[in-house]
Amino acid sequence: MKALVYGGPGRREWKEVPRPEIQDATDAIVRVTAVTICGTDLHILKGDVPEVEPGRILGHEAVGVVEEVGASVTGLQRGDRVLISCITTCGRCRYCRTGSYGQCLGGGGWILGHTVDGVQAEYVRVPFADTSTHRLPDDVSDTSAVVLADILPTAYEVGVLNGAVKPADTVVIVGAGPIGLAAVQTAQLYSPSHIVVVDLSPTRLDAAKQFGADITASSADEAGRVVREVTGGLGADVAIEAVGVPETFELCTKLVRPGGHVANVGVHGKPATLHLESLWIRNVTITTGLVDTASTPTLLRMVEAGRIDGERFITHRFALDEMEKAYQVFENAGDSGALKVVLQA
């Protein structure tokens, strides 16, 4: 089969590799029918995630059809169409029993495309398949479902829920990439009074308005000004960091009000300065997190009911064997205008 293989920082190749086989009784082999690229994959290629070893198949967001199941898999059978979660869960350890699947101690967590081979391939082995996949309704398309593998639950859980967004809040989202836009969409579930989106790209700011932001800003200075204006000088109730660089995290800590929440979602490859000398007295809550995907069943029902439109995130479509072209478009989003790219078999 063909797969996208990491060759070390700055190196990747779509090439022939052995087709995966069942290794454990809880495994399933899934034929990939739709897959996407995540900003985290770009962080890996920059060398920001050193746990990923050369030779690893990348990717953790996909939809597919079950081809084979291990002897202990009881909830899936050949031919089932499934969403593959970006988080794998053993379902038995202390963290899994409390819904904190991202911290799984039993061999799960974020492993696909990280510590085991991922989904940017024609076939993938899914460990703990019963608890790490979701069967899809017939009326939910592959491309609507694939955004539920990571970006929607990540933005919702790590951004909106960790940020404790409430009705009438002023929410600032720094970064209008796919995660930031998913935060815009899911923050609206809580009826904030204002959603302010900050990004350098005019194209992405336009997208943010289409997704529901009522105010946009293209610089830190502009963001500070508009937040002061709409809050009477108080500051944002919630600031969601959706980029993963020191400057955007530090901007969030400047925009948030005393007693507010900073929810960091972005994947950071470099240290960010935490200005405790000014934050300690302001009662600011700062949260970080890896998505647990405990919200995926709820979000899937919302997509099925038409309350969330997964298709609107997709800006570019490719055949599965156009992986290199898709990466080029996604990593040059400033020029291409790409939000999410989807590759289909």
TrEMBL record:
InterPro entries on file: ADH-like_C, ADH-like_N, ADH_Zn_CS, ER, GroES-like_sf, NAD(P)-bd_dom_sf
Keyword Translocase among record annotations: no
SUPFAM superfamilies, sorted: GroES-like, NAD(P)-binding Rossmann-fold domains
SMART domains membership: PKS_ER
Superkingdom of the source species: Bacteria
Cofactor(s) of this protein: Zn(2+)
Keywords: Metal-binding, Oxidoreductase, Zinc
Residue ranges constituting the Enoyl reductase (ER) domain according to the UniProt record: 7-343
Similarity comment text for this entry: Belongs to the zinc-containing alcohol dehydrogenase family.
Protein name, as recorded: Alcohol dehydrogenase
Organism taxonomic ancestry: Bacteria, Bacillati, Actinomycetota, Actinomycetes, Pseudonocardiales
